[in-house]
Amino acid sequence: MSAGRPEVALVVQRYGLDVTGGSETLAREVAERLAPTHRVEVFTTCALDYVTWRNELPEGEAEERGVRVRRFAVAEERDLDAFNAFSDTLYDRPHRADDEREWLRRQGPYVPRLVEALGRDAARFDAVVFFTYLYYPTYWGLKAAPTRSVLVPTAHDEPPLRLDLYREVFTLPRAFAFLTAAEERLVRSRFPIGERPAIVAGMGVDVPPSPDVPAFRVRRGLDGPYVLYAGRIDAGKGCAQMLAHFDRFRATHGSPAELVLIGRLALPGLDQPGVRYLGYLSEEDKLAALAGAEVVICPSPYESLSIVLLEALGLGTPGLVNAHSEVLRDHCLRSNAALYYVDGDEFSAALDLLLRDGRLRSAMGENGRAYVRDEYGWNLVMQRWRDLLAAVE
Asked: I want to staple 312 with a disulfide (CB 3.0 to 4.6 A). Which of 85, 296, 350, 389 is the partner?
């Protein structure tokens, strides 16, 4: 342990400015914001892609924005189709503990050398923080370095959370950092975490004062009103259902509003009237797209925070979210800045209301700005982090 600045290790499956993903972005932001007061060391992989875990970054150590980053090569790439087929033999079916450990290995990223290095060095860290309950480095890393460990589960109600091996994951940490109160309720309902230190740390949201919406509209040829989806465009994120709901909305209400999609496209055959795909945008253009939208849609039933929704609310754009996500529904109720829907009828009715009623959008926009400012400012979030780390150091 350090006699000067506290030393903190962060363990996360992918890391870097070019890595997209909620838990990975949170890990990088926390690492960089702790760096002025802590010696921060990140244990991660050489992968950029979470689907295959293919090694794309150089193995070894690097200094990145004040943070020491140690990357380890993934020993086995993942075959997603084979992994999904194997998963179907476990979920809600009788199986052995060895089957779950084999599932974890196939889930990946399989990096035994990372776990070995963490175990060797664990004693010199004042705290070891693990991001995301789901992956191999967290399960085996917690076994290797449990003494001053903090788990950031980023959990939502999904089939893997019901596997027995995750009871071990939630038994070992000294402390927990949750993204939302809804996530903490879910974890406490499943696992006996007791009186161990736990906080709802959230994630800070930086909102620029005035993205250049007119310039963005000109560049992208957006002349009329639009609603926006931002993120990975695939069925697992609720996008196929959202597209079906939007098609029904257009047929029922005859609205001129387009549905604009930005992000990585993983849905085949995207060719639907009133839907426009703009690809993967720069951060500047993404924020302008959020600010210029009439409504931002979050259709995923599985969320542990939703950075995109918080960015939209912080920019004064109301949300329309899937009610099957308790986290998203909780944001709606606490902020008064978004509506939620259960099915296609409610989707159509809520979207029609939001598009027709400018005064309602404006009031919800002000509520959203206040909610993000008061709950998700980085100064508040980092003070929560410092308090939690002090409890385990």
From this structure: 296
